[in-house]
Amino acid sequence: MTGIKLGCIADDFTGATDLANNLVRAGMRVVQVIGVPSEGQGLDTEVDAVVVALKSRTIPPAQAIEQSLQAMAWLRGQGAQQVYFKYCSTFDSIYSGEVRGNIGAVTEALMDALGTDFTIATPAFPDNKRTVFKGYLFVGDVLLNESGMENHPLTPMRDANLIRVMQAQSKRKVGLIDYARVARGETAVRESIAQLKSEGRGIAIVDAVSNEDLMRLGPALADMPLITAGSGVAIGLPQNFGIQPSAAASALPAPAGWQAIVSGSCSLATNRQVVHFKSAGHPAMALDPLRIARQQATGADVVAEVLAWAQPLLQDGPVLVYSTADASAVKASQSQLGVEEAGALMERTLAAIARGLVGLGVRQLIVAGGETSGACVQALDIRQMKIGPQIDPGVPWCHAQTAVSGIHLTLKSGNFGTDDFFSKAFTMLA
Asked: Is the pTM above the cut of 0.70?
């Protein structure tokens, strides 16, 4: 097997499929591996890029660094010519007390390991209305800190100025390559990089307001050992390796089996998707963390209760099990259970339900929410996923092997997808 061209490290599971999706759309054959593979573990198929999916967005920086360096070492061992550190298009990571975030810490650790003195950082993803202008991150028409992300239960973002955010997380000086330079193309971007390096800056936030900006940026990054970004920058990289878009890159096996959705995201987008699914008359069961905690205290089997409800319904179409709720309901649960325990309780419960649903014959599974996706994939003991066609920007169908059977799986970031995403995804796969 020849070496891979691009080795990617993602700080959560939905973000990994988001990145892989953009690479596949641009023609790369991509496999996503779950966690850092063991020493000597290789790939099941010939691919152009590998995305290592970590669950490092909300863990202490020292642990995130350790896992990311292990992933980088494995990718380099597979022949990766360039390394891509992928974070969310809302640039969020753990932020608590003296801990100022993982993005800067991981970026600098990877730079040191690769022996490079400069890299770029941009979460721009115009297809999903994430744009960077003058160093400020916009979600649609509003600044990041006015988009609802300021209320995120784990990683609230209250500053849209990415230079300030990144500088607070980094020892290296942070600069800006603004939209005017990007609009002028590869030569202007390379000149900006040279100027920033001469000023002693090691990281540059890069403006991008359109896919055309990202395509112009791509060639300027061809010789950069490390790229850090959201998934948007990926659309401009395959061309550097002589790869062009091809439908063959996204081919998956034919679908079979029952259909189900497990949703733990509390984002505004996922709340709308749950409402849309229920309004269409599909069966749905809501999970309340406070009720689950009370039931578990008495020895009740919450998972068995959910599976008993779902089993007779699956033959008639998809079912939804969700803990998705608005910000006030989430805060109420957190105030009684604690932030970490409330989140961990729902992750464990939803992961066990996902495993049970597959045991019942579900072979087409949607999981909504980054932390929920990580827990479900681990519960299903999935090690590798082949990336397939896009459902909505940033969200593809994948195919993976579990201990029971092969399944089609999509891991949806909470903020992604149209209101009718759940129904549309199954229709598209069929």
From this structure: yes
